[in-house]
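User: I'm new to structure prediction. If I give you an amino acid sequence, what do you actually give back? Let's try with this one:
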Amino acid sequence: MNPSFSIVVPTLDNLDDLEKLIISINSQTLLPKEVVISDSSSSNQIEEAVKIIHSKVPIVYLRVGRAFKLDRFLKSLSFLPFFNKIIGKLPDGRAFPYEASNAAVEKAAFEWIAFLDATTIPAASWLEDYWNFKCQYECDVVFGNTRYFAKTKFQKLLRASTYGRIGHETAPGSIIKKVNFLNGLKIMEGVRSGGDVAWKMKIKDSLNYYLPSKSYLSYSSLPNSLLLTLKKFFTYQIYGSFIDIQNNIKDLYLGTALLLCIILIPKWNYIVGWDSIFFIPHITKIFFLSLFLIIFISFTINREFFRVLALNSFRANSLKLLLFIIIAYSIFNWNAVVAKWVEDSIWYIPHITKIFVFLVFTASFVYRGIYFPLKNKIRFSYLFPFRWFLVGVLGILLDLAKAPGYLLGAILASFVRRAKNIHG
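Assistant: Good question. You get back a string of structure tokens that encode the predicted 3D arrangement of the chain. For your 424 residues, that looks like this:
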């Protein structure tokens, strides 16, 4: 059977990448019937270029918005009477990649949809092999398998601390029947990141799928500066906090934050001074009362917790973190409660809190700088003797940049899941 594919490509001010992608699409051993370019660039550069790009595969151009600085933020203020008239005169603003992809699928004319983005280049046999996988495994969806490539020194450090040299399951590169996608399986809109992860989870719950062991897609557009990288990871994780994904990681960050709070808050007034303007009366009582209220509200919203605890990895993991916090709190108070601050006591352990914090930090650093990269196939010769330290530092910085999003996501998890159940 000769399949009919429409390839959908969201794009935003990246003409050079798009031209390279069109060349690779025209090199496919199984040619698609069309390429739908879903564009929300700030200029008409791509729109004009599409008219003259030489392509064996017909190109369909779709304008889905026009980007300008702070467009999404300004549009979000449209409910304010003062801004309403002003914002109404502005361009539509950019479409996020998921919104652009959804619009392109609706525009597509053929039975099967293949997803790409302008910075992800497929192997020449991608479509043909994916169609063979679909037929061989009788599946509804074949997910993309993407490897991340690095050119500069910073990109290599970034790859070592994040994606590694292995393939990753991705939405770009995936194929799905158009009717299935439009029948309740569109990608979540309104978010800049995380929607593809939620989409893959939804696919796995409703359709048969397959993930090739070989990487068919390559991505070579990693950020090339520390500041840009931290900004990207921070922004993307904030958006991800509003989606019901990565709950175990969110729990881990929440547990770590609670641990630090339990250590620091009881000592706050001692640290800032009892006569300081930063003195907070009854701060310890306020903290633990607030913590109790948050937990109570969370469990009230998720009342099913009490009957599905054994099957709910999210809640089970929360209990593990609670156990870790109890252990940490016990260590923090060990000398005061057990040894009664008697230094000659057999139970007295000098600097126990400092030792514990140091061990936790060292374990995290070794994990980010050595174990994690080696697990992701980063060469031993690249890490040693010195680069593992830089990889570890970068990894911890990225974790700190993502921390606000993970913490917000952990706090909102119950509300997000409740909203998902109501609307989903």
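You can read the tokens as a compact description of the fold. Here is one thing that stands out. The beta strands are 5-11, 34-39, 59-63, 112-115, 120-122, 141-148, 168-177, 209-210, 217-219.
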